[in-house]
Each structure stands twice: as structure tokens, then as C-alpha cells.
Design a protein that fits this description.
Elements: H1 8-25, H2 30-37, H3 41-48, H4 55-64, H5 71-74, H6 82-89
Amino acid sequence: MDYLGTSDDVILAELGQRIARLRLNRNLKQDELALEAGISRKTLSRLENGHPVDTVNFIRVLRALGQLDQLDALLPPTEISPVDLARLQGRQRQRASGVREDSNETGDWEWPE
């Protein structure tokens, strides 16, 4: 499915159909899956019919269907780029900076007396 040109409603409907197919492949009734997921049958029905549901309910259904590990395929973990890592760590100091308290105001160096 080409998701880039697809509306949110169509994507939700597709996700709902896939959840329903997984449930039916496991020979589960909506009541049984809803109970196992800890959600209401109405919420599961809404999910399967392509209506928006809370993310936590979607996660619970995936867990009950044994599909929670599929979230890695959906959103793979991202590594921090070396550039961002260097930026986060900051630069190590190479030299001292700042004005010393005992310097004169002109900035010219003088022998201490």
C-alpha cells in the first residue's frame, strides 16, 4: 500500500482490517480478544472498523495478538548520528580562556614586580 498519498481514514481502515484478520486467523471472537487485551468490545470494534482509538488500546490489542514486536518494523529504533553525538558531548577544552584578574586594562603584558 502506498501510504504517502493515502488519507488518514484509509490508513485507519487498513489497520483495522489487518487487526480483524489477525483476530480471525486466531479464531477469536471480538469479546475474547477484547477481554484478553483489557479493552471493551466496542473499542475493539471501533479499531477494526477504522475509527481512531487511543494508542494504548492499539498497543494492548497488538500485545494480545502476539504482534507487539512488529512495532520495530513500523518504527525502527534510530541511532543518534555521529554529528549529533559530538554536538551533545560538546567540545573538549583545548586552551584556557577569559581575562585574568591581575591583567592590566590595556591588555599589554607586563613583568610582575
